[in-house]
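Hi all, a correction to my earlier message: I attached the wrong file for lipoate--protein ligase. Here's the right sequence:
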Amino acid sequence: MVTYMETGATDPRYNLAFEEYVLCHRTAGDTLILWQNDNSVIIGQNQNTLEEINVPFVEKHHINVVRRTTGGGAVYHDLGNLNYSFITDLDNPEKLTINQFTIPVINALEQLHVHAVASGRNDILIDGRKISGTAQRIEKGRILHHGTLLFRSDPEMIDGALNVDPHKFRSKSSKSVKSRVGNIADYIDEDMTLQEFWDHLKKSLSGEGFVQSSLTEEELGGVEQLKRDKYDTWEWNYGRSPEFEKHHKSYWDGGTLEIYGNMKKGRIEALKIYGDFLAVKPMGEIIPLFIGKEFTKEECRSVLDGIKLPDYFGTITEEEILATMFE
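and the right structure:
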C-alpha cells in the first residue's frame, strides 16, 4: 500500500524542502507526493544558475529561482504543471533505470487515451513534444524519482524564463520552445480540469491503493527549518563562484559538462563542475577528492577510477570527463 501525501503549498522552496525531508526522514515504505509550484525556474543540482535563466525576464515576472537536489536541466513550473515524486527502497542500484518509474506515468496517460513514450535520457513525449522531464536522487538506500507533467502550462513563460543553449539542439530543425514542449490537456478528448487530472494520477500511480498521510507538527517544523537553512538561501540557489583560470564546456550524449578550475603550482586549488547530466548524488561529495592533486590527466584519472561515475555524472564517461578537463 502506497503512502500518499500532498505538501499543501505552492512555494517551491517549501515544496522542495518537504520532498527532501520525506526522503531523508521517512525511511521505509513507498511514498507518492503530488505537488505544484507557482511560477518558478527549478535549477538542476549541478547547473550554473545565471547561465540557465533569462535574468531580466525572471525579475520582471517575479519568477522564483530555486535549485533542487537532483540532476538534469532547468525547468519552468507554473500552476498548469503538476509534479510527482516517488520515494521507495532502492533494491539493486546496478539495475536502476528511469523506465521503471516512467512506465506507471505512461500507463496513467494511456488510461486517458493519451499515447506517450519515454525518450532520451529523461523525457516523456507526446507526438514528439516533451510533456515531462524526470530526475532521480539516491540517499542511504532510498531513491527519489520526480518529474513534471505539463498539463496546461504557458509556453510563452517557459520560452521567456529559460536560456536555451542552442548547441543542445544543433541537430534539430526547429529550436523554439513551442515546438519542443506540449500540454497534456491538448491531447485529452474530454474537457478535463487539472484537479480531475490530479485525482486520476493519485489513483493510477498508487497501484493497488493508497493511504493518505501527512507530516506531524514536529516533522513540519523540520521542513520549515530545512527551507530556511537551505532553500531560502542565495548560497544554495545561486552559489558563490571563485574566479577560475581554466574553463571548458563540452556537449556529450549524456548531457552538457562544464568544468572550471583554479590551479596553483600545478595543483588543483579549486574546482567547479556544472551540467545537466543525470546525477543521483551531489557533486560536493567528490570535489574534495581533486583538491591538492596535480593537474594532470593521469592524476585526475586516478581520482575518477575510485568514483562510481554514474552516480555523479550519469552516462558521461571517464574519457569524456578527461577530454573536457584537458581540452
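Sorry for the mix-up. The chain has two domains: 2-237, 246-325.
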